[in-house]
Each structure stands twice: as structure tokens, then as C-alpha cells.
Amino acid sequence: MHQFRYSNSEREMEVYGYDSVVKSHCRMCHGGCGVIVFVKDGKVAKIAGDPDCPIAHGTLCTKGLASAQLAYHPDRLTYPVKRVGPKASGRWERISWDEALDTIAERILAYKEKYGPESVVFGYGTGRENEAVIYRIANLLGSPNVLTAGHFCYGPRISTGIITCGTNPIADYENFPKCIMMWGNNVTISNPDEYKGEPFSVALDHGAKLIVVDPRLTRPAARANVWLQLRPGTDAALALGMLNVIVNEELYDKEFVEKYIHGWEPFVKRVNEHPLDKVEEITWVPKEKIREAARLFATTKPAAIQWGVAIEQQNNCADNDRLLMFLMGLTGNIDAPGGQVLNRTPNIVNVGQFGAHGMLPKDQFAKRLGGERFRLASRFAIIQPKCVWDAILEEKPYPVKMLFFISSNPVITRANAKEVYRALEKVEFMAVADFFLTPTAELADIVLPAATWLEMDYVGDFWKRHGYILPRRKVIQVGECHSDHEMLNDLAHRIGQGQYWWDNFEKALDYILHPMGITWNDFKKMNYIRGEVKYYKYKEGGFSTPTRKFELYSTTLEKMGYDPLPQYREPPESPVSTPELYKEYPYILITGARPPGFFHTENRQVPRLRELHRDPIVEIHPDGAAKEGIKEGDWVIIESRRGRVRQRAKIALGRDPRIVAAQHAWWFPENKDPGHGWDESNINILTDNALEGCDPAMGASNIRTLLCRIYPEKKHPMKKKNRMSDYRD
Amino acid sequence: MNRYALIIEEFACWGCKACEVACKQEYNPVDATNGIKYLSVWGDGPKLMNGKLDFMWRVNVCKHCEEPPCAQACPVEAIMKREDGIVILDYEKCTGCQLCIDECPYHAISFDEDRKTVAKCNLCHHRVDKGLYPACADNICLAHCIYFGDPAEIEKKILEKRKIRGGWGDIIPKAIKISRR
After folding, report:
1. Is pLDDT of A1 > 80?
2. A430 and A340 in one domain?
């Protein structure tokens, strides 16, 4: 009889006759999962999870499993190209790496000379772990402008974490929380930075109680002990209500409050301005349920909050994050095993040091776009996208002449997509590094072929706060593709930064690792390195904040001129804030629920992933569908004050009839028109980017909650697009 | 004699669809743009189930029944149950008459237009016979809810999990006995 063993690579090698096997670290999303890559005849033959990986324990998602189809995709860009027709004409010509990088270098230096280095804006999206190299080249150039998703994704958790308790607190599934509160998030489908679905799922199988805060009935919500079905965008009010219960019923950790908290009295006063009657009215959640959830969370020890990006893509971004941290702190779960740990990363050159933020001259820092308005974001080197579009379109406060986007598709992912498109059409010079000619790349002057995770060496999870680093080992070479790190290292030499860079990027990896006394060659023989594991570190030296306390009352925000205490603000468009508009646009639109397989705009050309979801889906309650004459599977128009798009209707209970939920990040690579259907189903055609509607401290665009109308397409059909259906269900 | 079964505890499934793609990776070359699915995950709801608003993920895949009605329906004996429990469709013998499709109570057999035969999960017998777990059951699942092995052992494991969760979980039917009518 055979002995069955999970992930049995030796047997797999024998049976399938693979030539070699490489352990690596996946980067189809925010990364984290250890993988085993089997190679035959020099090509990736199979990808499996690595059971030795401390993050996902050998489990793997659809994206990781389908990586080879991305790497070997026939449409992939495998050499540098320059545009030879007008923008979005789709006319490209192959060029050499030398010509591509020399052209880009020449432009950077010319704009620096004529308009100042601030006129050159670098950008990345959710990144390919390239943030540190991109900041390094920008800071050394003297440009304070790196355009990232940081204003409304993860950046807020880092920024508010640092000002509240020194770092971003991470749910400690390793020590099995007994209660988990999943807030605006579904870690079993998506990957909120440090987190994977597997340890969450295992914690539930160990008997953890579950509270889910979500306007939609997800599977976790269906499995929850308490489901808080809130009105979209009212998270801050709900959290204040729960804190009200915890304070007034004295369910908080008294020792923690007495010894380690700054600002208790003003905080209590603020919380008491939010009695449950008022919170129920704001949030639509019955007060008994709020009380039940608050009691369950506060009295079950240890407890953790599974959080993510949804609460950050709102006008209450920074305060939402802070309020959830207050829930962690007041209940004594901060830095507690099974609670929310302030991890120590291994002793390496961290992202901030590598990013050379200290090298940006003070007078250049002062020129950071939007820096005077979004002061918390600016402190953490984050800028608001609209400030860049304005600088291109109106040349205010100064002109931006060049964009260099590396793993970013802002035409699809940033608020008010039509304005983004106009800005990219107008900008004088744009370079892009990506896997494919995306709708954004089609507006570029030069596009560089980027390497996937299978094609690079790197210190994986170098930027994360879960306490691990893992080696990503190069498995294959595809065409002339280079990693973002290699191409920027090369470019840096061509713009006179050579002394701060390396002959090849492996030496940069040695530099990252050198404080530990090891080199990349040593590290790549290891499975991973973990930082020191220690709990309750604050009991010795306090928290790494100005007061050394856990700051409920933020001295940093106070100095910056913000309300030091968190508050609830109505979404810029809502039945409450804009009742007249609500009559015309009678549904609350929520956007961005993640389907498995895609990572924002990525993977819609990967057959194994696209066949999981052929079309963009908008969910509507049966009552709304009946009222609007919408049937299951109909193409419908979703329309806001800013524009309209088409998606297919899924009719389902499990949401308030006043809500519809649309998917984000859709474009259609199979549409060979150079626009690739960028404006057909892209929900950011509908979202707003007015600075007044953004979070005042972080500049987060409010893209998750707005008002819309919805109706069958056949009433008002959109112009027919040339759509191919290569995919079967 | 070994007894093999593939049992999925749907209560625990999160709908991540990794099993679907793992299955595809096993059976389709990397450059294939499509191809039939042996296994598929679909969302059931949200809707009222037993008077409660619920949302479940369901996994459609051959259950390798004790008395498989598909085998009884096949006029050319292309489907047979092995002694170890695996129900195998012989693609060489299948004529594509599709009589088996309607007989399957789990909608786990489909028609492959390219090959002009029916298609279903053969429980990766080419792997199992060499001591490897079926592709979908090889520790891919983040919920750890795909079980392969002796059905009695699996049942024990699932009941144990159910106990730790405080009574939450699937009640696993005894070995699935389905016969024709």
C-alpha cells in the first residue's frame, strides 16, 4: 500500500519525470505563500504550495496555481516597445533595452533641468514588491512624488498604526484567537496584505467565535455568530457605538487603560456622543446586535480583528483604522498572543531605509503634491492621485511632465477614471513597465516588459509586518523581461545615481540582508527568516509613539492640525448627506467585492482564471430587481452623476434592498481595440475624486460608497463593443 | 483492500475555487485556453435555506457512489467501479451517447464537445495508483475541507472538527449508496 503524504515532491518528481524543483515565494497578489515550482525541459510544469511555508502552510490560491499561464501568455510583452502612432493607436515598434532606458533617462534629466525633479512622477499600484526601489530612485532624483495606492490601501494602516501604537497590529492566528471580528473584508477570497485565508479558517476550526461586519452576506457572514449588516460607509459610527458599549459597561482591560493609554477622558467624552440609539439610526444596525457584538468581542480572550482595505477607501479612512485599533487596544488584545501583535521584522535594511527617504532634500519634500492638504499622507511619502492629474491638466501648483508607472493601471483603478484618462492623454511623456499592453500602457510612449515572480530573485515580504522574510528564487527567463528592480537599478546608473546603486541587483539583495551578516546566496538556501517573537513588548518600553502610550488622542494629528480624536463623517454621497441626489440616484452603490482569481486589474487574460468569471457582476436584491425590471444575468447599466457602465446582474438576498454591489477593475484584454474596453464596465467611471470628498488626513478617495441608478441595458443600450467570447463557463 | 473516497465538507468551503484550478493544472496543458471541468465550485444563495438566510458554496464533482447509476446506464460499460471505490470513466470506450448524464444525481458528468465523449472526475487514479493525492485534495484547499482516503476515517475527522466548532459543520452521509431507481 502506498503511503500518501501531502505535497510529496520527491514522488511527484519520479512519477512525472520533472527535471528540477525550485522552492519560491508567490507574488500573484501581495505575496506571502511559499510555493514549489516543478520544471521540465526548462519550463514551469506545475506549481504547488510549499508545506514548509509558515504563512499558508502549503495551501495555494487560484492565482498562484495559474501563474504559469501568466508567465507564458501569448499576449505577454517580452521586449521593450516604443509607440510610433498617436496615443491609444496601438501602433508599437520593438526597441532595445538600451534605447528604451536611454530615452527614459534623457527625458528624466531634461524635465529635471527645465521644470525641477518634482515634474517627474513615479508610480506603482499594489506593487510587485518594487516600492522600495521606486522610492529610492525618486528620492535620489529629488522628486517627492511617488503615486501609489497608499492613500487608500495599506498606507493608512501603516500611518495610523505608527501614530497610534508604533506599528500596524497584525492578527495572530498562530495562537488561535477565540473570537475573530472580520470587518469589511473576506480574507478567504482576497489577501489583505499580511493575511491569508488558511490560518483564519484553521482558527475557526479551532472553535473561534466569529463576528462579521459587512453590508453583504458573504460566506463568512453566513457562518458568523453575529453578522452586523451596516449601511455602507458608516463603519466609524458602528465602531464608536461598540466602543460606547465597551466603555460604559466597563468591559475594557482596566490595567491597559490605566497604564498604557493616552487621552482617556476626551476619548470617553467622544464615545459618549455616540449612544446606541444614534448609532442604530446612522448605521441601520439594530442596537441589540451592536451590543451583542461588542460584548462578545470584549469578553472573549484573546480576540483579533481581521481588517482590510474596504474601510480605507472611504472618507473616514484614517479614523476607521484608528477606531478598529482602539477596539483591539481597549480589550487588551494589542500585542497579546492570539490577539493583535506588533511584530518585529528580521534585522534587515527596511523598506524605509532602502527607499532612501532621508536623501530627499527638505525643500523638495515641501513640494510634495497635496502635501499641505493631506498632511498625514505626506509624512509617509504618500500622495493623492487627483493632485497629480490636476498638476498635469492645469499645471497647478506646478506642471507634471512625466509619469513612470511600474505595475499600475490607474485608468482602471483610480477614482474618476475619465479624468485619469484625460491626464494620461495629456502628459508629455509616459513610461510603463508591465506584463501586457494594458489600457494604461496603451497611452505610454515606452513600455518595458516586466518579469513575473517566476523570473526574479528577491527578498520576499521584505516590506510586510508579519515578521517574516522569505526567498523568492528565479525559476525561468521569459523573453527579454526584467524585474522592476533590475530595470530601475540600470536606469539609476543612466541618470547619474550610480554611486547609490549596484552593478547588479543581487548585490542590492546582499545589502538588504547585510545587517544579519548573510548574503543572498546564504538566504536562498533557507526556507524563511522570522523576526524575534515577543509579546507585550510595550510593558517594558511603552509604545513607539510621542507619548510612549497607546494614543487614543493623537498628539501627531493634533500637531498637524487635525481633530486628535476619531469622528464619523457621512459619505459625500448618501441618503443622509445628499437627499435630493438620492431621489434621482436611489441606490447606494458599493464597489470592489473581490472575486477569486483576479488581483485588481490583473489576470483577465489568463484562461484558467478568466473562466472562473467571464463577466463583471453587479449584485442586486430581488426587490430592487423587480422594481427596475431586471432579470438574472441581464446586462444592466449602472449610472452615477459622473458616468455609466455595464455589468451583468446577479439577483440575491443577503443585502439591504437599497444597496447594489458592483465589481471593480474590469477591462477586456480580448477586445483588441487599444482601449481594451477600459470604459465599458470600469466602475471607477462612476466614482468621484473631488478632494473635498477624500479623507482629510490620508487623502483616501471615497470609492466604496456612492449613489447610483440601475436599469436594464436594453432600455438605453451602450454603444456595442467588439467583444470576443473566448471563454466558456 | 484500500477504500478510497473524495469527500468535501461544504460547510467549511469558502468558495476560493483553488481546487478547480488545481484540477485544470493537472489535466490541461499550460497553453490550453479552455477545456472541460471535472470539478466546479458554485455559490448557492444567498437565499432562504430551512427558513434561515444562508449562503453556501457547493462543489460539483463525481461522488464515486457505492452503486453508481451512471455505470448502470452506460450501454458500452465505459464506466466501472473499481474495488477500491473509484468510479472510472474509460474515455476510449465512451461513445458519447450521454445516457449517463441524466442519471447522475449530482450533475457531475458533462459532455466534452472537443472530445465528443462525456467527461467526469476519475479521482486522479493515475496519481492515486502511484501514491499521490488527487490534485484537488493535495493540501491545496485553504479550508482543509477536501478529504481523500478511507471514508470511515474521513467521517471521523469531520465529526471531530464539527465537535470542536461547537456543533457546526456538515453531517456526512454514510458511504453514498445510489442505485438506479
Report:
1. no
2. no
